[in-house]
Please model this.
Amino acid sequence: MSRLQVVSGKGGTGKTTVAAALALALATEGKRALLVEVEGRQGIAQLFETEALPYEERKIAVAPGGGEVYALAIDPELALLDYLQMFYKLGGAGRALKKLGAIDFATTIAPGLRDVLLTGKACEAVRRKEKSGRFTYDYVVMDAPPTGRITRFLNVNDEVAGLAKIGPIHNQAQAVMRVLKSPETAVHLVTLLEEMPVQETADGIAELRAAKLPVGRIIVNMVRPALLDGVDLKLAETASRSAIAKSLSSAGLGGARRGGLAERLVDPLLQQAGEYAERYTLETEQRSVLAEQALPLHELPLLAEGMDLAGLYELAAQLRKQGMS
Amino acid sequence: MSLDPARVLDLDPLLDDPQTRIVVCCGSGGVGKTTTAAALGLRAAERGRKVVVLTIDPARRLAQSMGIDSLDNTPRRVKGVEGSGELHAMMLDMKRTFDEVVEAHAEGDRAAAILNNPFYQSLSAGFAGTQEYMAMEKLGQLRARDEWDLIVVDTPPSRSALDFLDAPKRLGSFLDGRLIRLLTAPAKLGGRAGMKFLNVGMSMMTGTLGKLLGGQLLKDVQTFVAAMDTTFGGFRTRADATYKLLQAPGTAFLVVAAPERDALREAAYFVERLAAEKMPFAGLVLNRVHGSGAAQLSAERALAAAEDLDSVESEHPDPAATENAEPGTAENADSTTAENAEADTADAAAPDDVDDPDSATAENLAGARIVDQADGKAGLRNSPGTYGSSESPTSGASAPDEGSPAITDRTAGTGRTTATDHTTATDKPAATDPERSIDQLTAGLLRLHAERMQLLSREQRTRDRFAARHPEVPVAEVAALPGDVHDLAGLRDIGNRLAAHRPELPES
Model:
């Protein structure tokens, strides 16, 4: 199992939720996982129903069996100050730089630099060890930028190479790339069973592979329950409406006669079945597109009550059951 | 809980109004923003206006749905538009747009020097706000050409919906900022007391940044900014001009969202932000709203009835539906409401149980139902108690309590049939008995309906939360489509849904 797990996905597919559930699943039974946020959205804090996360590793949840989940919202400016402190012992001068806007300048001047700082911080957490020699975190899970930007985000070497050809940033980028391209890392993509996200996932996988970044698994999120199968749907097309009305009536839903309560339910129920049938066909097609990617595939259910903390644990249990941790 | 008419966003008057020159669609990622922009553009065109849709990062299929295989930085006319109007579509190419800005303002050699500058190349391809800035730039260009009656703009898929408003200012102030001036013209400073500190700071900083990034990069930046600055009057001026264009009458902002917590939270922030910036906000487009034509049937009641059918079916393998259609039973059920569904359903089911040898079944069924209703996700699995209590141990054992609900139910049903005395066809597959299949189908339809109703009430709660925070915001709701849009007809359909005042929503 790779120790750095990067979770990406198209906007709206729930990648933050999946990243958090994965961290919980990985921490189960006494392990320690760090959940890292890089886009400053405070999505993790909202999910875990806590106040906004500072730039500091902080315990936010206990996993089943005594594991722990820590969270960190990486701020590129503070990461750069950290970094300068580490290499140049700047002290107060670092603060002066910040005041001048130099930090903002440096992190915006070179988009690659910003990404090196973010991925660099995550890689540092992966490699960090306690005095006892054991890794501080068994796993680091990153809630990464969306599929459209993920390859560029992780492929910091290329980004930075054109700008900083020598110097510590260059070296840092090299070190980060060694971790990111090794089996220590796995990049997972979250999708829905809809055309656009599936297409974007397929494109994203191709890009990651072209950049020689290790693609991990596909996680299909918000899968709705299979309530009717092909046989039912065929029958729904041919079944007599009055027979369905009688059946509804027999279940105590009113009169089957014309205009009766049960009879009036038949049309809308069949219409819903028609919509379901259309979605069923579409989902079957999308599943086969995903299967072509030849990657391990996981499915997480749509939670009827919406996403909350209890739901997060439910998804974590699902991931564990499906062998993702 | 139908929408207050005052809050319905009426889009046709907005699209038809010749004063409306720019419509901006914004919102978080994955809510159907680009599709909404395209559908609005088509609708306006078919209502007689000459429209251009500026998309930022359209999915290939959306471009194809407008009959254009690959959109590029030039507006292309869309074929197949009905009526007297015109629809043109284009996709923002940020690097190309940036290059055009440079080329338009600098002559030969100077332009070449900028375009070849490594810092410019990095900036134009990847600066965090370049896409947003260039979207604004392109919008300004299109508006200045005055060729179109209406420009519909999609916004970039930002990490946050607010980036669209912030990024141009950020890029503008970054490139025009004090720091970059200090960097590029340190010689002009000095002399005054305060500047001395600055100069010390500056040399230390340029030194540090130089070490960090490599000295060449700083030189590139200095050359670039100097070249840009002398070429045309600064970025901030341009960003400010476009910003003012957005604030002007004639622009209408639409916030696009889906009835999901995160998307609506972003939408709420955006609404507040637009108000704070005095941007002309027209309303909220809520995509993917679910409805039901049978909203009078609650999820709980549908699930209870589905449970009934699962059990009735095994106890009455012979067609038994006719006697249930008796007027007395029907009227009894007609007067039923969701609140007392349990009791009434049990009553209504009672006639079935008169000739049932096992008189305890009715009670068991009622019991099982209550358990499921309390659970809230009822019916997605069977309560093992239903089988264990009323049937032989074998049937209970054959009913797994997890897994695919439809299959589980069927297996369980067959098991139950095996255990009763009513039939000898123990191994007969359920699907070969037409009557039983109808009951199974009906149970499936009811479960499907229950799922729909649960989704609906969740969406309703989310929308109510938004409405409580922003009761003043007019809303246009678009019913969810089972599939994606593939052609103009699909976009037209969405346009119709956008403009229809009444999406299929439950009235209670």
Notes: The radius of gyration of chain B is 32 Å.
